[in-house]
Amino acid sequence: MFIVRNISNLQTIQTLQTIRSCPLCKNYSTYKLRYIMKKSYFLLLLLAGIFFLFPACQNKAAYKALIVTGQSNHNWEGAYPILKELLVQTNLFTVDVAKTPAKGGDMSSFQPDFKKYNVVVMDYNGESWSEKTKAAFLAYVKNGGGVVIYHEADNSFADWKEYNEIIGLGGWNNRSAKNGPYVYYMKNKLVVDSISTGPTGSHGPQHEYVVKARNTEHPIMKGLPTSWIHGKDELYSTLRGPAKNMEILATAYADTAFKGTGRDEPMLMTLRYGKGRIFHTVMGHVGKEETHPATECVGFIVTFQRGTEWAASGKVTQAVPLDFPNIGGAVSRPDYKETTLADDLDKISKYTIDRSTRNYTDLQGRIRKVSANPAALLDIEKKMVKVLQDRDATVEGKKLLLRELAWMGSSYCVPAVQELLKNADLKEAATFTLERMKGPRKN
Ligand code: ZN
């Protein structure tokens, strides 16, 4: 490479020497430098062009994930594209999907090459695999492969001893006390109950519920609120299992009002098996219904994304998004994409009173989150002012923004608000904002 470059430079110099010196300064070395810089600039432009034209060059995915699916008592055909999309949007994963044959098919043909992957996401609740495939899966985990157990995957393989050690806790499919103790929290204390009898695996009607962190320092949990509202979902209860090398990261109270156990049931868990790391989420039911509020919940999305990264690598690099829910209410992403400030302001600029105020609520959340950061607050305010100045933005949308600026606006927004006094439809709202802003303020 070096030699080639040197020869090429030498040729360049020779060519230059034979042709001309710099027409401006008559200085050959300056001209040579300019010529080479011009060439480098052109090369840089070319590289930048290739980078933007071919997105594949930008793919920085660090890990390979395999989703295993193909049989389930759930809507696996609806679920795996959601799980795939959620992993792809982190830009951390390339994702393959391995489907088993349908029920009754020739299971011996199902032989994914697990060891090619950093993490295997189990979205499977069906017939037993061949002994060869089971052995390959166990070898993969023992040698340090990551596993994510998603929702009904902890119903699967009730009789496969090692699989139950990998999931820690499971339910249904004739599981019983022989599978291990009940494990849950009661009055903030961990209970491991090998004595009680009863069902193994249960849930009441779907509902929203509070998820409570039990370890706020684990990489998956760091930066998340200590409690948040989870979107409408089943609340898995009365799970049993070996629960060896298992840590419960979060629980949810199974309210008796929803036919629950009255216990704090495990929702998020991590386990070690050999050198392998396992992340287990019992949340995220996907049924036959058209919408799937459990997987649209930002709490599910983010813990699934973070848990999968941890299972693949032992660390979590993803930032906690602004729209992560808290105890104030569940937050949903109906299209599985994080709503940006630009999205919110665009929707508010088109707002009419017959439409949802979701984007306004989002905006309020964003403002609350940065309320102690004047620079970030001013940045939002500047973008809100742009909407106030937009002639195409609706009167109702501008009224929402004026209401918000009344308490968070700085002197920056005053000229734009004063301008709205000239608008008969907005005069009252603008006056209110300016009056409120005259109160005891720092800026
Ligand atoms: Zn379910």
Distance between the termini: 60 Å
- What is the global morphology? globular
Helix/strand order: HHEHEEHEHEEEEEEEHHHHHHHH
CATH architecture descriptor name of the largest domain = 3-Layer(aba) Sandwich
**The CATH top-level class label of the largest domain:** Alpha Beta
What's the arrangement of strands in the largest beta sheet?
Answer: 2-1-3-4-11-10-9-7-8
Bound molecules: zinc ion
Largest sheet: 9 strands, mixed
Number of helices: 13
> How many E strands?
11
Kindly identify the CATH topology of the largest domain: Rossmann fold
Q: What's the average pLDDT?
A: 89
Rg (C-alpha, Å): 29 Å
Tell me about this structure:
The longest helix has 26 residues, at 28-53. The chain folds into three domains: 9-57, no CATH class; 63-313, 3-Layer(aba) Sandwich (Rossmann fold), CATH 3.40.50; 341-436. The protein is of the alpha/beta class and 443 residues long. The chain has a nine-stranded mixed beta sheet with strand order 2-1-3-4-11-10-9-7-8. Mean pLDDT is 89; it is low at 1-26. The chain is 37% helix and 16% strand. α8 (341-349) crosses α9, α8 runs parallel beside α10 (374-389) and α11 runs parallel beside α13. The protein binds zinc ion.
Question: What is shown here, in short?
Answer:
The chain is 37% helix and 16% strand.
